Amino acid sequence: MDKLSVLHRFIDTIEQYQLLKKGGHVLAGISGGADSVCLLDLLRMIAPKYKLQVSGIHINHGIRGNADQDEMFVRNLTQQWDIRLVVVKVDTPTFARKHRMSLETAARHLRYLHYQRTAKKLACDRVALGHTADDNLETVIHNLVRGAGLRGLCGIPVHRDIFIRPLIKITRKEIRSYLEAKSLKWVEDETNTDVRYTRNLIRLQIIPIMEKINPAVRENVLRTGELLRSEDCFLETLAQKALSRIGKFNSKRVLIDIKRFNSYNLVLKRRIIKLIAPEISSDHVERIVDLITRKCPGSHYIQAGVVVRIRDEGAEITRKVSKSVNGD
Amino acid sequence: MDKLSVLHRFIDTIEQYQLLKKGGHVLAGISGGADSVCLLDLLRMIAPKYKLQVSGIHINHGIRGNADQDEMFVRNLTQQWDIRLVVVKVDTPTFARKHRMSLETAARHLRYLHYQRTAKKLACDRVALGHTADDNLETVIHNLVRGAGLRGLCGIPVHRDIFIRPLIKITRKEIRSYLEAKSLKWVEDETNTDVRYTRNLIRLQIIPIMEKINPAVRENVLRTGELLRSEDCFLETLAQKALSRIGKFNSKRVLIDIKRFNSYNLVLKRRIIKLIAPEISSDHVERIVDLITRKCPGSHYIQAGVVVRIRDEGAEITRKVSKSVNGD
């Protein structure tokens, strides 16, 4: 592995998925960790070639003991590289308590919220994030262990909406070597949360054994993920088409034509229900499918405020839509 | 965990998937290992309830140093339990050399071949195999690491054709406790092959960490596998329907209507090609899809004797079908 190989693979990934538009404006999420420093350095390397404008955003989550030092590190780095930086300070613990989320979920939510807002403010057409091939593998293993379905096994998408992840084919080890070869510094993430504990088990104890079995495990899981994602998207499109044919929408309610619902395969039935009520678990999806298929009369309370009423005119699904979480 | 819980879950699995017919005749594959001894014991426990006839088959692979002792162990056990046993001796190493297979692949091939033949001879309507929840998890992890697609992540099917796996929801640990509680003996598998080495890494070093992260990892992977399998089957059915519409078959050749091929989603295109030439890798599937989609004129040699010819009347795919392997 050498510096050039990382740069080349970075460019290859950008080309393969057409992640960047020439003359565009990219907002890079910079925590100050190795991945994000590498991302920012690679972006400024290719900026002339793509006529890119590169800006940075740093979210100070107010969680880590050294959050302010991290912020200072990112401020210095971007100043040194002459890159415009937006720093957003958020109070993650308070937000998490208020919305009954775990710290990780809250931090993630706030991060993406401010990425999007800032991208809009600065008129950025892309937000670049530093996820690596290791992050992808860890995510897939974690989802496998938790019992996530097809979607979870796809891993981290290379692009979604304005978000792009051009480091997804590069390993964490390669990134460290790259930074060391260029004498670039970074900060270590010192948060010690449950998720981090789990991630460390996966990273330090599971992945090394998988590498022993097959050194190409990261590439393999990435490639499989791409195939799975295309199959998942295809099924999702079929389910959406089916739903638009058999469902009548009315604010919080959907009325489903039972006879036409029953003309679909179980796979699409499940996905139709999941489209209507994404908040429910797969066990409850199964229950709703069963209720509609067998046309069980009456009102059935399911979970999380979802109610199914089987009536003559069809199956009515009502959701108690929770107020959308707001980061202000 | 107690003896009853294993028996109950065994019966639950049989009921849930309707694995057995009342009054049927089951052939149980008995290596002499813990799983197969447990399987045979459970089958004879439930035989009166289901009015089952239970027979056993033992394959002496001629590989393991103590193959003959294992055979003797199984002969004694079945005699003691008054169960009819068929012993088949095969020369796996010679078969493997002759057909250029690994020892594991050859052993597996011969095993299933003789299971089917013997089932036919004895008029058995089911062949019961001792795969456990651990075997399933190990298989899924192994397939993930190797980069298998959707099919590989489904794991081991509970039933396929006449084969049933009623221990699939029971763990290896539970099986050992069951046997110990009933003072039943078994033989340990002492073969030391590459596959076994890999399996041991997965079993001893990866799964314990996964259990630490989520003690329900086996159930989760089983449940996910079932969902994935139904999605895989659904996509397969769509691809088969599409192929029957756009393909003309002619011994070793398939002629594809290019225009109609191109009307399908990439997901179905890939699966159509995989149906025509299951022997090729996913990279080569991708290449064929690309050749047909872009209508690249001429003859293209792909892999393993597969040739694609793009002509005016359509895309012709020719396979060099290898002689089917024969166990005699």
Automatic annotation (TrEMBL), chains A, B:
It is an enzyme of class 6 (ligase). Residues 26-203 form the tRNA(Ile)-lysidine/2-thiocytidine synthase N-terminal domain. Pfam families: ATP_bind_3. Its EC number is 6.3.4.19. GO terms for cellular component: cytoplasm. The keyword Ligase applies. Transmembrane segments: none annotated. SUPFAM superfamilies: Adenine nucleotide alpha hydrolases-like, MesJ substrate recognition domain-like. CDD domains: TilS_N. It comes from the Bacteria. It catalyses: cytidine(34) in tRNA(Ile2) + L-lysine + ATP = lysidine(34) in tRNA(Ile2) + AMP + diphosphate + H(+). The N-terminal region contains the highly conserved SGGXDS motif, predicted to be a P-loop motif involved in ATP binding. This is tRNA(Ile)-lysidine synthase. It comes from candidate division WOR-3 bacterium. The lineage of its organism: Bacteria, Bacteria division WOR-3.
